[in-house]
Design a protein that fits this description.
single chain; about 300 residues; alpha+beta; 2 domains; four-stranded antiparallel β-sheet; two-stranded antiparallel sheet; Mediator of RNA polymerase II transcription subunit 27; Mediator_Med27; transcription coactivator activity
């Protein structure tokens, strides 16, 4: 990404230089013969000056072509069908619909990508138990689903997590009746919104203090959006249908490592900032901080 930005800046600078020298040509032609050309051979001096500017413009044009050739080709436009005609509406209320549709398509594509990654991770961590050794006449005991448990069981797990990490402030609400929503505050660093589905962590959003508590809206700060993406990866990594309480404790232990998000340097490069961001990734085993590019 950084290399693409540098190439784009180089191409824009080349276009800027080309436009400046083209303007010199028009200025020279419009001014014609000037007094500083002298009285002797002023026509030849004018032609020589014009040829030099044209040679410079030709060189600038080659530079622009080379810079543009190095740029990464952008992806194709979103195919929104007949809704593309909304951008041609003259009514201000309808003009805004096109931008909202584009954002909706982007969000849908992102959900599809996350779902595919989560499905691959869950498939790799699946717990398949074979019952071939049991007699076919013996009735198997029905196991309780992790999504259908009593609120008291969930409350006990949250209480144990609260005792395990005293420097994390937990606030529990139940907007979805049986399934709780936890707000986990790491001091003044950040605040995580963790939604449960029974004993399983279903959704995580990390925001700054003072931002809205809506769990479906991303943070307006890039650093917390990166942390949210990493929380989704960790949520899938620690997923364990057979040991849900251990999965919750493991995730909270990993989440607790973000208490020094803005104070510790990257374990690999030793810098606090890279691309204007602190180390937003925490190793899933060692909890050591890394930049996204250094992990």
């Amino acid at each position: 990404m950084e290399r693409d930005i540098e190439q784009l800046n180089s191409a824009l600078n080349s276009v800027k230089v080309l436009r400046s020298n083209v303007r010199r040509i028009f200025d020279s032609v419009s001014n014609g013969l000037r007094a500083d050309h002298g009285d002797d051979g002023k026509e030849n001096k004018f032609i020589t000056e014009l040829q030099e500017i044209l040679t410079t413009v030709n060189t600038n044009l080659r530079d622009v072509e080379g810079s543009v050739a190095n740029l990464t080709t952008p992806g194709g436009p979103f195919s929104l069908g007949n809704t593309t005609y909304l951008s041609q509406e003259t009514t201000l209320e309808r003009q805004a619909l096109y931008g909202q549709l584009v954002n909706s398509y982007k969000w849908t594509d992102k959900i599809r990508e996350y779902s595919a990654l989560a499905g691959n991770i869950l498939a790799a961590n699946s717990f398949n138990k074979s019952y071939k050794t049991f007699s076919t006449t013996k009735r198997r005991k029905t196991q309780t689903s992790n999504h259908n448990v009593s609120p008291e069981v969930i409350e006990n797990i949250i209480t144990n997590v609260d005792r395990l990490f005293p420097d994390i402030t937990l606030t529990t609400s139940r907007p979805f009746v049986a399934n709780p929503l936890i707000q986990a505050s790491l001091g003044r660093v950040l605040r995580g919104h963790i939604a449960f589905k029974g004993l399983m962590i279903e959704w995580v959003v990390v925001k700054a203090h003072g931002e809205s508590t809506d769990i479906w809206t991303e943070s307006r700060y890039k650093v917390f959006r990166k942390v949210t993406e990493n929380c989704h990866a960790a949520m899938c990594h620690f997923h364990s249908p057979m040991m849900p309480e251990l999965a919750v404790r493991s995730f909270m232990h990993w989440f607790h490592s973000y208490q020094n998000l803005f104070s510790v340097p990257c374990k690999r490069c030793g810098n606090h900032l890279h691309n204007n961001l602190p180390p937003t990734w925490r190793d899933l085993r060692t909890l050591e901080p890394y930049h996204e590019e250094c992990k």
